[in-house]
Write a structure and sequence with these properties.
This protein is α+β, with helices and mostly antiparallel strands. 45% of the residues lie in helices and 17% in strands. Strands 2-3-1-9-8-10 form a 6-stranded antiparallel β-sheet. A 6-stranded antiparallel β-sheet has the order 4-5-6-7-11-12, with helices on one face. α25 runs antiparallel to α27. About 1% of the residues have low confidence.
Length: 639
């Protein structure tokens, strides 16, 4: 795992000083080494590209694996972040085709795979990755991201240059883009607590979407962005319905995924919460390694939020070396400034990952396996039940004319808390009733009317309920033929997981030089799950029945029959007591509020009502505004 960056343009733009700034900004991602190279693109046009790599050595620790790396004749150059788990298989095939390798790194395999198959090589890569590849023969730059967006990649283009990096702040600090907030991104952030890709907080900077690649042609100065994976396009024939056979096959695929994710030249650890996903992961991984893997759990002092009882059950069964990390309100208060320093984009999530990553990295562990992705593919979120219910609600009022639905909407808008009961019901009644629209309503922390209330000159054009229009159209097309369960699963993978959990997990863990691997997001596993009949995936009496029935022999009943908690902090008491002074100070910053486009008085009113213990203001709403202002202040955006 590493940090990568690059600048392409005229020689006066591709300066070593700019590249050095980007390398220094990404130093936390790769404390084990640095590489910078400047390559000529076109002598007559004075075009150059500078490539930056910061190394976190995990596989092939030798100097032969340093980057940027080139092929035998120096015509193709690569910087790569991530891990390719099937690189040895691909390497053997390439050697048979005559390719010569100077290292045993997975990164060099990408380079030769591209040389052999072009962009089709992406179909062969199994793993998490983001890379920039310059082909001097074709005069093109290829930027690519793995199927789920586990490893992010950002870019900014103007008339003089194209710049890319693993983190947005490396682009910001290069001095090339203007430090102007993107107003559409502000709207998107207030809707979901994270900015929906490809938007970023900085105007003119974008992220590469999961399962997409960008090709920039320096001869024509044109770019194209292409999607290379969609599980529903790969799906053929009838859905699988034989339960016993499915559970056996799923178990085999899952065990193989974990086996691949354990490959490393440094020690590997495990995150254990005590939920179904992490318990399954720890059980299978430690069975493979005979209990030798070190595991880590977070224990909150606020017992109603602690999963200590459940993590004990699993650690006693499977872990010979288990560490409990006890976290208090004071611990988080003391960590908060550094967590905000690590925050690459504003998010209401991620502080928990920062805290856990810091403590784990302090033990000397550089790689951990996480259960992320399990809720999305096995139906662990409330959305899998709520959205079908919302669809039924919509169907009841669909025969009514829109004017009548709006009247009902206005009645409901004043009831309940705005988290679901009031504003969300009114939005359901006024929606078009499709699954994407309902999903977005359910995932929102502030509805469209609420965002308009808190934003001055609210920008909605180009958005569909806070989601970029082009993404909304593409997702609607992607899920058109899928059944209900798979529609929701894919939306969770592409939106909440990619834009919040994985993005936050990347920059928070990498701020500590810790690589987090996610075996539940092996694409062969996900592809298989999408071939299974919906009937096998749903059971009113059993959570995540597909997974549980495949691993039931490994887990105590207390684990798979327990109520889901989720890995989150007890924010309500913390924000109302320990953090309220910091929030009040930021909410009172009139110039910053104005620069972002927030209505100061209305935002202050929201905070005041929250601190008065009113139940209809959710903690995420005030936290989102605080995070946004804090992030803009730290990064001098809009100042």
């Amino acid at each position: 795992m590493c940090g990568i960056a690059g600048i392409a343009g005229k020689r006066d733009v591709v300066q070593l000083s700019n590249l050095r700034i980007m390398a220094d900004t990404l130093a936390h991602r790769g404390p084990d080494g640095e590489g910078i190279d400047i390559i000529e693109i076109n002598h007559n046009k004075d075009l150059f590209i500078g490539l930056v790599h910061r190394r976190l050595a995990i596989i092939d620790l030798s100097e032969a694996a340093r980057q940027p790396i080139d092929n035998e004749d120096g015509t193709i150059w690569l910087v790569h972040n991530g891990e390719i788990y099937n690189y040895k298989d691909i390497q053997k095939l390439l050697i048979c085709k005559g390719h010569k390798f100077k290292s045993n790194s997975d990164s060099e395999v990408i380079l030769h795979a591209y040389e052999e198959w072009g962009t089709e090589c992406l179909q062969r890569l199994h793993g998490m990755f983001a890379f920039g590849l310059f082909d001097s023969r074709k005069k093109i730059l290829l930027l690519a991201v793995d199927r789920f967006g586990i490893k992010p990649l950002y870019y900014h283009e103007n008339s003089n240059s194209l710049i890319f990096a693993s983190e947005l702040r490396a682009i910001i600090r290069s001095g090339i883009p203007e430090k102007i907030i993107d107003r559409l991104a502000v709207n998107s952030f207030l809707a979901y607590g994270s900015i929906q890709a490809p938007l970023t907080a900085v105007r003119g900077a974008y992220s590469i979407l999961p399962a997409h690649y960008l090709v920039y042609d320096f001869s024509s100065c044109q770019k194209k962005i292409i999607q290379y994976w969609n599980p529903f396009k790969e799906k053929q024939g009838e859905s699988l319905c034989d339960g016993a056979k499915i559970y056996r096959q799923l178990r085999e695929i899952l065990e193989e995924s974990i086996r691949k994710h354990l490959v490393s030249d440094v020690p590997v650890g495990l995150f254990l919460s005590g939920g179904i996903d992490s318990s399954t992961l720890v059980a299978l991984a430690n069975k493979l390694k005979e209990g030798a893997l070190r595991s880590f759990s977070v224990i909150f002092r606020e017992r109603e939020f602690s999963e200590e009882k459940y993590s004990h059950l699993i650690s006693d069964l499977y872990c010979k070396n288990h560490t409990e990390i006890r976290i208090s309100q004071d611990d988080i208060f003391n960590l908060m400034p550094r967590a905000f320093d690590a925050m690459d984009q504003p998010t209401i999530d991620g502080i928990n990952v920062y805290a856990l990553s810091k403590y784990v990295r302090d033990t000397g562990i550089k790689v951990v396996l996480s259960g992320q992705g399990g809720d999305e593919v096995f139906g662990g979120y409330p959305t899998f039940k709520k959205i079908p219910f919302m669809q039924r609600m919509y169907n009841l009022v669909r025969p009514l004319p829109l004017s009548s639905r709006k009247t009902l909407s206005n009645i409901f808008d004043g009831f309940g808390n705005s988290r679901l009961k009031g504003t969300k019901i009114s939005q359901i009644l006024e929606s078009n009733g499709d699954y994407l629209a309902l999903y977005l309503i359910e995932r929102q922390i502030l509805g469209a009317n609420e965002r308009s209330y808190f934003l001055k000159n609210n920008q909605e054009k180009g958005l569909f309920n806070g989601l970029p229009l082009e993404v909304a159209h593409a997702l609607s097309s992607d899920i058109r033929t899928a059944d209900v369960y798979d529609k929701i699963s894919f939306l969770e993978l592409r939106l909440y997981l990619a834009n919040t959990l994985l993005r936050d997990g990347d920059f928070m863990s990498m701020s500590q030089g810790l690589e987090v691997r996610v075996p539940f997001l092996d694409h062969e596993l996900v592809d298989y799950i999408f071939t299974v009949s919906q009937k096998i995936k749903i059971d009113k009496a059993l959570p995540k029945p597909l997974l549980v029935n495949a691993v039931k022999d490994l887990l105590p009943k207390e684990i798979y029959l327990r109520k889901k908690m989720g890995f989150t902090f007890p924010w309500v008491p913390w924000l109302r007591h320990k953090f309220h002074l910091q929030m009040q100070e930021v909410f009172n910053d009139f110039p910053l509020n104005n620069a972002i486009g927030l209505d100061v008085n209305r935002c202050q009113g929201l905070l005041r009502v929250f601190l008065q213990n009113k139940p209809y203001v959710h903690w995420s709403q005030v936290w989102a505004i605080y995070v946004l202002m804090n992030w803009c202040n730290k990064n001098e955006i809009g100042r």
